Amino acid sequence: MHQESQVAKRYAKSLLDFALERKELEAVAADMELIAETCKNSKDLQLMLKSPIIKPEKKLAVTKKIFGGEIGTVSLNFISLLAEKNRESLLMEIASAFGTVYRKYQGILSAEIISAVPLTEEERNKATQVVKGLGDKVELTEKIDKDIIGGFIIRVDDKQYDASVASRITALKRAFSKNNLQ
Fold first, then answer.
1. Does domain 6-104 have CATH number 1.10.520.20?
2. Where are the alpha helices (DSSP H) in the chain?
């Protein structure tokens, strides 16, 4: 999960509203997912979009060449609008923010669970049930982080539940150092 800028969120929300108006929400959502994923996986594309040296028209031509046959007219026109407004450097961030506003619109909660080892099916189901108490639909992503030693961390939006061994050790160290100072 990452933080998107307010500008990216506003563009994403406007695109969502426009896609709803045009009855192309699912197509635009798929387009934005493709754009976000492509940008994330291509450092060269990211650098090109953010480069102050490359003119917006050139960036537009390159992005149209990359995505032209892959995405719909609404999404292509949106990229053109970004180039007109000199906001093409935000394309990846806006595409990512679109996923966030789309999931919110659909009532889908995005949850991330971080564990030291891969979850079993039973643990995954338990985590999903815990998060389901907050919303109807849950999109669970899993990450492995051996630094948490054991246990897990669940993040839902800006909330976090930390049941990791590492956090317990840190809390014990703090408590121990307080007691030693007195």
1. yes
2. 6-21, 25-41, 43-50, 56-67, 73-84, 91-106, 121-132, 165-181
Q: Give backbone dihedrals phi and psi of 58, rounded to 5 degrees, phi first.
A: -70, -40
pLDDT digits over 69-122, tens only?
A: 899 999 999 999 999 999 999 999 999 999 989 988 988 878 888 888 888 888
Planar angle of CA 145, 158, 1, nearest 5 degrees: 50
Phi and psi for 89 in degrees, rounded to 5?
Answer: -65, -20
Neighbours of 114 (CB within 10 A): 19
Residues 31-35, mean pLDDT to the nearest whole number = 96
Contacts of 163 (CB under 8 A, 6+ apart): 151, 152, 153, 154
- pLDDT the model gives residue 182: 55
The domain 108-181 having CATH identifier 3.40.30: the answer here is: yes
**pLDDT, tens digit, for every residue of 128-149?**
777 777 766 777 788 888 888 8
Complete edge-to-edge strand list for the sheet that includes strand 108-115 = 137-144, 108-115, 151-156, 159-164
Domain residues of the chain, as ranges?
Answer: 6-104, 108-181
